[in-house]
Amino acid sequence: MNAGFPREISDDTVVLRQWKPDDFPFYAAYLADEHTARFYGGKVDKQKAWRHLASLIGHWALRDFGVYAVASSATGELQGVVGLWEPYDWPCREFVYWFTADAYANGRALAAARLQLELIRAARRPGEIVTTYIHPENELGLSLAHQLGGISRGEEPLFDFGQHVRVEYAD
Question: Is 3 inside any structural domain?
Answer without folding.
Answer: no
